[in-house]
Write a structure and sequence with these properties.
Blueprint: H1 5-14, E1 23-27, H2 32-43, E2 47-52, H3 55-68, E3 74-78, H4 84-93, E4 99-102, H5 120-141, E5 147-152, H6 173-191, E6 197-202, H7 210-216, H8 220-223, H9 231-234, H10 237-242, E7 251-256, E8 261-267, H11 277-301
Parallel strand pairs: 1-2, 1-4, 2-3, 4-5, 5-6, 6-7
Antiparallel strand pairs: 7-8
Helix pairs in contact: 4-5, 5-6, 6-11
Length: about 300
């Protein structure tokens, strides 16, 4: 189908820098916002790596993109951010990239756990992205050129709360995972200040996707009639970051009504994302160390 006329108009006006020669890796790029982000970046001239849990789905998405953009340079890699061992393997094979976009995530997975025993939503959207960042960022810092690192949060992080005694509770896990990710990204922005790593946050606003069906429930049909973002419009935040000289640590997201919808611009940071960052990192390191100790014991037992 290609990109809409409205999207192309925005790109031509606000994303004027070509990405020719850049290699951009996107997690969860086989569908939804990740897929459309990949398409926009290909249109802008980038080489794209689609890092996905299912190589079959990623390969199918790649073929679909190549049918529309036959000269595109697209490759696929396997990455399951709900599995620390998959992250380890992926990090060991990470090629040289100019930008790394963490897009993959899950929303509604009651009763499910990650391979490492975390509640699925928190374990994927935050713990997995945290562990991935700790594995790949030191390698990217040594690559000898600038790298843009983008974590995808959600507008719903603005209403979340973090309690460590209920950290892995299913209730409110999606909003909480995105608030934790926002705090972690703020931590990274400060940690890598003055280095070749330029850290940002992006968010899609309110997008009418299958995730929205869980949020709106029986009102989903009515929600589709509201002026919320299409998947394509919500996919412009990361390309907007990559094609503009934004201040390090910026949040890019939709421009209208508290960041709910519209084309991207720099958003004001939520105060909740700036609180208790050190406490969160300390708690997270403890949880990761516990998992890794268990993995080491399992290896020794074998």
């Amino acid at each position: 189908m290609g990109l809409s006329k409205k999207t192309l108009k925005f790109i031509n006006k606000k994303c004027t820098r070509s990405l020719e020669g850049m290699t951009v890796l996107i997690t969860g790029a086989n569908s939804g916002v990740g897929y459309k982000t990949a398409e926009i970046l290909i249109y802008l001239g980038a080489r794209v790596i689609m890092a996905c849990r299912s190589l079959e789905k990623a390969s199918s998405a790649r073929e679909k993109l190549l049918a529309e953009y036959p000269d595109a340079d697209i490759r696929v890699m396997r990455l399951d951010i709900a599995d620390f061992s998959s992250i380890d393997s992926f990090a060991n094979e990470l090629p040289d990239v100019d930008a790394f976009i963490n897009n993959a995530g899950v929303f509604h997975r009651p009763g499910e756990k990650t391979k490492d025993g975390f509640e699925m939503v928190m374990g994927t959207n935050y713990m997995g992205v945290y562990y991935l960042g700790e594995k790949v960022l030191p390698k990217l810092e040594r690559c000898g050129h600038d790298v843009v690192y983008i974590n995808t949060i959600s507008i719903i992080h603005k209403v979340a709360k973090v309690r460590y005694d209920r950290f892995f509770s299913e209730k409110g896990s999606y909003a909480r995972s995105k608030l934790c990710l926002a705090r972690y990204t703020e931590y990274l922005a400060k940690m890598y200040e003055g280095t070749n790593i330029r850290v940002f946050m992006s968010h899609p606003g309110i997008t009418i996707t299958q995730i929205a069906s869980h949020i709106f429930g029986k009102w989903y049909v009515l929600a589709k009639m509201m002026p919320f973002n299409s998947t394509e419009k919500s996919s412009l935040s990361a390309p907007f970051i990559l094609t503009n000289d934004l201040p390090r640590g910026s949040v890019a997201g939709p421009s209208k009504l508290f960041g709910g919808w519209g084309y991207p611009k720099i958003n004001k940071k939520c105060k909740r994302a700036l609180r208790d960052i050190d406490g969160l990192i300390e708690f997270t390191k403890g949880a990761v160390n516990k998992v890794n100790s268990g993995r080491e014991e399992t290896v020794k037992a074998k």
